[in-house]
Amino acid sequence: MGPVASEGQLAFGDSLVAAGVLTRSGVKGVYGMGTAFVAAFESVDRFVTESGRGDQPEVYRFPAVFSLEYLIRSEFLRSFPNLAGSIHGFDGGDAEHAALLRDADGLDWAAQLTATDLVLLPAACYPIYPMVSGELPEGGRLFDVLGTCFRHEPSDDPARMQAFHQHEFVHIGTPESSLAFRDDWIGRSQRMMADLGLEVVADAANDPFFGRAGSMLAASQRERALKFELLATVSSEEQPTAIVSCNYHLDHLTAPFGISASGGGTAHSACVGFGIERIVLALFAEHGLEPDHWPNETRKRLWL
Amino acid sequence: MGPVASEGQLAFGDSLVAAGVLTRSGVKGVYGMGTAFVAAFESVDRFVTESGRGDQPEVYRFPAVFSLEYLIRSEFLRSFPNLAGSIHGFDGGDAEHAALLRDADGLDWAAQLTATDLVLLPAACYPIYPMVSGELPEGGRLFDVLGTCFRHEPSDDPARMQAFHQHEFVHIGTPESSLAFRDDWIGRSQRMMADLGLEVVADAANDPFFGRAGSMLAASQRERALKFELLATVSSEEQPTAIVSCNYHLDHLTAPFGISASGGGTAHSACVGFGIERIVLALFAEHGLEPDHWPNETRKRLWL
After folding, report:
1. Containing structural domain, residue A115
2. Which neighbouring-strand residues pair with A41?
3. What is the model's pTM?
4. Distance, CA of A188 to CA of A200 (rounded, Å)
5. Min Cα separation B152/chain A (Å)
C-alpha cells in the first residue's frame, strides 16, 4: 500500500507539521493546510494562471468527483486500478440504517453500501474530453483547469499526497500542434520554476502503469518520449519529486470521446500539469518554512 | 434518490448550460463551471474571506477526503447515512485486475473493491474538531475554512449539487460565546447578501436527519432554534434555496473529540456557512447570466 518513505521524507513531514504549515488528518497522505501553506498555495496557483493567461485559454473548473462511465472509457481502470477511488453510498431504510450503525462501530460498514455512478477525479484534465467531443475548430482548443485530484497511494512522504491539486493547461488539436504544445511547455515550465528560485531537472518519465502488462506500457511511454517531468528536491535529495509534468497523450484521451481535428483528421492532445502542493513544498524545502524570509525575487513573482 | 426538480428548476439549469455558465458531467447534480461561473465563484469566495478577515481567523484548508473514523465519531452516519460517500479502492493483483476490467465493462466493478479508511468530506468544518482537541485558550478559537463537500443526493435542481463548496467561519468556545457568534452572523450574513443585491429571508430550519428517529431530531433542532438559514430565490420562487446557514452545534462536534473550554468547562461550537455555488447561482438568477451587466453596486463589492 504505497511506497515506503525514507527517513528524510519522514523528517520533512514532521518539520512541516511542527511548524503548523501542514496538519495531520488521521489518514496517511492526507493533510490539512495551515495559514502559511494556504497563502503560498494561492500565490503559486495564481502564478500558474498568469503564466498561461496570455494564450487566452478557456477556463473551466470541475469537481472532485467524476463519472465512473467516463473513467472506464478513459482506460484509467486498465492502467491504474490501484490508484482509483470509487464512491459508494447507502440506499437502505431504517432497518439497514440500524445494521449500518452496528457495522460502522466496528469500522466495517462496507457491507451496507453500494457503488454509485461516481469516482474521485484522478487528474484535472479528464472532464474536458467528454465535454469537447465532436470536431474541433481550426487551431484546436486550449483549456485552463484546476482540479482536486485523488490517487489511492497512502504514503508517509508529504510530497506524495492522496488528495492534491493539479493546475493544467490542455491543448486538443492535431498530432503536430499537440506535440509542439507539449515541447513548448517543457521550456516554459522550466523557466517558471527558475523564476521561483527552484532548481529543476527535466527528464523523460513514465506513468506508474499497473501489473505485468503495465511494465510494457511504461517502457513504451518512456521510449516514445511521451512524458517529461521537472524534478526538484522536496522531501529527499536522493529521490527528487516531479513537480511539473508535460505530456503528449497521442489519441488516448480524444479517440474514446469521438473528438476529431478540424477537417475530420485524428485529434491528439497534450497537457502541462503543475502539482500545486508539490511546488509549494519545493518552495518550503528550498527557501525555508517562513515565506517572509524567502528570496526577494521569489516573493515578488508570487505577489507575497 | 434525491428530490424531484420542478419545471422551473429544470429550466434554470438548462439556461445555465445553454449559456456555457455550467457544463453537464454525465451525472446528475455534478457540474463543471465555465469561465463566467469561475470568475463569479472566485469573487464571491474572496468577498466572504474579506468579510471575516477583520476578526483574524486562523485560516485552514482541508481536502475533499476525510477520515472514516472521524466521520463516525462525528455521528454523521447516524444522522445522514444517505448523504455520505465512502471511498473504495482496489487492492488486488493481475488476476483480480483482469476480473475488475471484465466487471467494469458491465459497469459492475464493485465486487473487486474494498472500503478504504476515507470518506468524502460532507461539510467544510468537520476536520477542525479532531485537529483542535484538548483545552481551548481563553476566548476560544476562530477559523476560516473553505471546503470541497459531497452529499449523495442526485437532483436535477442546479441549486442542489452533489459536489459543492462551503466557506465557513467556525467558533469554538463556551456555550455563551458560541451562541453569540451564531447570532452575530445571522445579521452580518444578511447584510452581506443585501450588499450583493440579493433579497434573502432568514428562517429557522433543520437538517435533513434520516429515517424515523431523524424526524424527532429535526423537530428538536428547529424547536431549539439551533439552525437559521438565509433563503433566496435561485431556481424556483416557490422553493427558495438556503444560500447561507448559521448553526449552533451545542457540544455535538466538540464532545466527541475531547475539546474543553478554557478552565475546563464544556466547549460548544457554532458556524456560519456560505454555500459558494448557491450564492453564485442566486446572483445569476437575480442579476442575469452576464456578470458584465450586473448592478454597479454588486460588481463593485465583488471587484468585478
Report:
1. 87-119
2. none
3. 0.96
4. 12
5. 7
Question: Which tens digit of pLDDT belongs to each residue from A24-81?
Answer: 999 999 999 999 999 999 999 999 999 999 999 999 999 999 999 999 999 999 999 9
B72 vs A contacts (CB less than 8 Å): 104-105, 107
Distance (Å, whole) CA A217 – CA A222: 9
pLDDT at A1 over 70: no
Same domain as B191, residue B151: yes
Contact call for B89 and A85, based on CB within 8 A: yes
Flag whether residue B131 sits within 8 Å of chain A, measured between CB atoms: yes
Phi, psi of B23 (to 5 degrees): -125, 150
CB contact under 8 A, A67 and B27: yes
Q: Nearest to residue B281, comparing CAs of B233, B237, B227?
A: B233
Among all residues of chain A, which has the CA nearest to that of B117?
A: A27
Task: Mark which residues 214-253 of A lie under 8 Å from B by CB.
Answer: none
Give the DSSP letter of residue A266.
Answer: B
Quick one: pLDDT at residue A205? 93
Is there a domain that residue B11 lies in? yes
Same domain assignment for residues A158 and A249:
yes
Is residue B22 over pLDDT 60? Answer: yes
Interval B169-219: pLDDT, tens: 999 999 999 999 999 999 999 999 999 999 999 999 999 999 998 999 999
Considering the domain architecture, whether residues A263 and A115 belong to the same structural domain is answered as no
CATH number for the domain that contains residue A279: 3.30.930.10
Q: Is the pLDDT of residue B105 over 90?
A: no
H-run or E-run covering A97 = helix A94-105
Q: Are A19 and A157 members of one domain? A: yes
Question: Domain check: are B111 and B236 in the same one?
Answer: no
Note whether A170 and A275 are same-domain residues: yes
- Nearest-CB residue to A26 (from B35, B70, B105): B70
Flag whether the ipTM exceeds 0.85: yes
